[in-house]
Amino acid sequence: MSGSMYDLSVATYSQEGRIYQVEYATKAVENSETVIGVKCKDGVILGAEKQKFSRLLEDNTNKRIYNIDLQTGMAICGKLPDGRNILQRAKAESSQYQDMYAIPASAHVLSDRVAQYVHAYTMYSGVRPFGSATFIASYNTFDGYELYMIEPSGNKYAYHACTHGKGRAVCKSEFERRNFKDLTCQEALVYIAKMLILAHEEFKEKKYEYEMTWITDNNGRKHQSVPQDLINNAVQQAEQLIEQDQIGE
Amino acid sequence: MNYTDILSSKFEPETTGTTIMAVIYDGGLIIGADSRTSSGQFVADRCADKIDYVHDRIFCLRSGSAADTQTIAKYVRYYIDAHAQELGRLPAVATAANLFRNFLYEYKDSLSAAIIVAGWDPYKGPQIFTLPLGGSVIEQKWSIGGSGSTFIWGFCDSNYKENMTLQEARAFVLHAVAHAMYRDGSSGGIIRLLNVTKDKIEREFIDYKDVPVK
């Protein structure tokens, strides 16, 4: 797809009514490491794969999933520095909202603020759109568990399962097959791991780390990292499941 | 009257030297207020409504400078409206109290305003927040305010009970406000009552002839 003269500035529409710069930003997200968000029966899980591109990297650091507040988490898919800028904004919005209104910001309000911020960067020729999609998972007593994804265009939707990045096609087909609404978060961990492993099938020789966080009825409804031993178990079981599937074929 | 009169000490700002009260009972809360707005010794409004609407189930009782409290209430009403629209459901009473508090605290040197925020929300039920002059916030089961309140502390302390019925709470507020109006020169007129519950708001107007203490 060539943009010819209409892709030089985000302030220019193409003749078909497309904004190529936003689409190119989305491309940046599509070519990056996979991130998944899933709502289960008793909570929400966020999962991200991290390729260890150098043996010099410290394990279990260099996160892609962060806390916005106690009960809200954000996962970044795409360019990490861009995503971290969005994260800082989300943290500020959440903190100021709580300061003013004496209640924590619900996910639908917070994601709206983040979406407006991301969208603002698609309106002016002096800035470039963010090259990251952000996932917001949260719990509050009135709205329950919520999951949103905000794309570089500023589009924001509420999901019960969403994914972006290189392995999104694989993950989406797994979403179709598995009814996560019937699984508890504990049960769903295996399938999250499975999706993240399948997402990078072609690069099996590389080393990967899996980052998972959750907000569930069982962990006090706070956004926290899934304990490392649970992640390791899930990865092991997932690898067995994949082998069995392959043997079955 | 020209501007020199306003600037001179002869001009006294309009105040709600007042009696205001709110009490939580089993199932909701009762708000009561007198109706006198005084400008010095002159009664500027003898039938004022000191119970201000903030949101569908949130009200504020104003004491101190009428100008200050009316303006603050107007801002808070606007902020709460915008907030409730975004939130998509009833705002928390604590939210309204916080918005009032921000004004009273940040502008404490310029304002003369003390407010009682009372209402019902689906998260914590009936709540009362007292916001005195400096901008602090305290949550209470019952609260009295205004110049007339000084005369009824004893009455209220001995007659308040937890988990009163609607009738008991109404009688408590009615008699307390009436006693305050009886002894406080800056309070008087008629009594306005408001019953706030989950399902409805009921306003009551007690005419002078029906005020129990006079």
From TrEMBL, chain A:
Keywords: Cytoplasm, Nucleus, Proteasome
InterPro entries for this protein: Proteasome_alpha (IPR050115), Proteasome_alpha-type (IPR023332), Proteasome_asu_N (IPR000426), Proteasome_sua/b (IPR001353)
PROSITE patterns: PROTEASOME_ALPHA_2
Proteasome alpha-type subunits domain sequence ranges: 6-28
SMART domains assigned to the protein according to its UniProt record, in alphabetical order: Proteasome_A_N
Entry keyword Transcription regulation: no
This protein's GO CC annotations: cytoplasm; nucleus; proteasome core complex, alpha-subunit complex
Gene Ontology process terms (BP): ubiquitin-dependent protein catabolic process
Similarity annotation: Belongs to the peptidase T1A family.
Function, in words: The proteasome is a multicatalytic proteinase complex which is characterized by its ability to cleave peptides with Arg, Phe, Tyr, Leu, and Glu adjacent to the leaving group at neutral or slightly basic pH. The proteasome has an ATP-dependent proteolytic activity.
UniProt protein name: Proteasome alpha-type subunits domain-containing protein
Naturally occurring in which organism (per UniProt): Paramecium primaurelia
Lineage: Eukaryota, Sar, Alveolata, Ciliophora, Intramacronucleata
UniProtKB/TrEMBL annotation, chain B:
PANTHER family per UniProt: ATP-DEPENDENT PROTEASE SUBUNIT HSLV, METALLOPROTEASE TLDD
Subcellular location: Cytoplasm; Nucleus
Function: Component of the proteasome, a multicatalytic proteinase complex which is characterized by its ability to cleave peptides with Arg, Phe, Tyr, Leu, and Glu adjacent to the leaving group at neutral or slightly basic pH. The proteasome has an ATP-dependent proteolytic activity.
Annotated GO MF terms: peptidase activity
Summary of subunit composition and partner proteins: Component of the proteasome complex.
Family annotation (Pfam families): Proteasome
Keyword Cytoplasm attached: yes
Record PROSITE patterns: PROTEASOME_BETA_1, PROTEASOME_BETA_2
Entry similarity comment: Belongs to the peptidase T1B family.
Cellular component GO terms held in the UniProt record: cytoplasm; nucleus; proteasome core complex
UniProt KW keywords: Cytoplasm, Hydrolase, Nucleus, Protease, Proteasome
Name of this chain's protein: Proteasome subunit beta
UniProt-listed GO biological process terms: proteolysis involved in protein catabolic process
InterPro entries reported in the protein's UniProt record: Proteasome_bsu_CS, Proteasome_sua/b, Proteasome_suB-type
Keyword ATP-binding: no
